[in-house]
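Appendix B: complex inputs.
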Amino acid sequence: MLRNLKPKRRRLLFLLSGIFILGISLGLALLALNEQVDLFLTPTSLSKKTIEVNKRFKLGGLVKKNSIRRLEDGITTLFIITDNNMSIAAEFKGVLPNLFREGQGVVAEGKLNPQKIFIASKIFAKHDENYLPPEIADAIKKEGQWKGE
Amino acid sequence: MKKLHKLANPGKFYRLSEKILPWSNLLAISLCGLGLYLGLFVAPPDYQQGETVRIIYVHVPAATLASLVYAIMAITSAISFIWKNPLGSFIAKAAAPIGAAFTIIAIITGALWGKPTWGTWWIWDARLTSVLILFFLYLGYIGVWQIFEDQNKAAKAAAIIALVGAINLPIIKFSVDWWNTLHQGASIIRLDGPSIHSDILIPLIFMWLGFISYLISVLIIRIQSEITLQKIRAIQIMISEQK
Amino acid sequence: MNEIYIFFGMGGYALYVWSSFGFTLIIMLSLLVKSYKNNKYNLKTYEELKSYSKRFKENNVKKP
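Resulting structure:
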């Protein structure tokens, strides 16, 4: 049947089926690897699995409002990582990135201690997809129309 | 359709491209100039990132065109494979170094943007990793043209890389939706409209159009170069046969 | 003077902002120049080959 096709059509068919098969197999592979491709766990996804104490992983979410506490030693910061569903207390010693702010996204690398507190050794600030001039962000916040945070 | 066939003739393409080139040059210079002026002098800083947000004016055009050029490469390779048209593979071959340049610009400016905002130059998340793969695909594609002595074989092997690699394009685009990443989600192409304020978006659009014009100019120059190279080969073959 | 200082200072992020623009400019310009020179070189080679092959043909015709 394929032999009756014009060469042009045959090459087109060959190409399309090749791309289709490759796409499907790569899609399946990525689906199987789904969790490994994720950069971090959220507090909710963490609660669904048991992670041993002292195993390193990345935890991500938002820095909970009014949760940042700086200890008197000057280098330790305590805060809460939340996904608006579950929350986990975290501790970090060191210099924080500039965009580490309450209500903003954060990815922390570290491990759980026996008290289930996340001891972070690295902090990355995640920023959202909103780009606004400062005055306008202030104005929106004043009007109470703010959707973020 | 007939017109398209005419365009697919290298000689016709060459003459048409000569007419486009001065205009794309002019547009590239004026749009990039205007975009830079607006982006550096007029646009406000971002409410969270401050002045670092200005890196967006080179990072986003380069990153989007890095993918776009690969898409052009894949489509023209497919056309040349199906219709056995040489112009398609000239275009793909000419486009590859431009795409590789845009990709490395996206990666380096991304690192320079990530350090002060995220707190790291690099992270192995799905977006950054898939863009790095895009860069290697470009290098592989360019390498294949160098390795094969026989240009017809090279064209075929390169077309295979271009087409197989095209699967990476949707992964780059949707990586930030499918997986959790450090890189933020899409700001411009969104169902609920752009989440960039127009004061920042407008200079970005000018820069983007400027980059597109640059792409057209350099692509034309490189395709012309390929067409000339083909003519040189034809003469060389003729001479060697007469000897 | 102060305004210029503020402009180039980029709120303390001068190094990151200006290296981004600088790197982009260097890559784009060098690709443009390289492509342009390559095209000119190919055109020159083609013209030379064309005149050579013309002479070559004429000689070939005359010889016998």
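Chain C has a mean pLDDT of 87.
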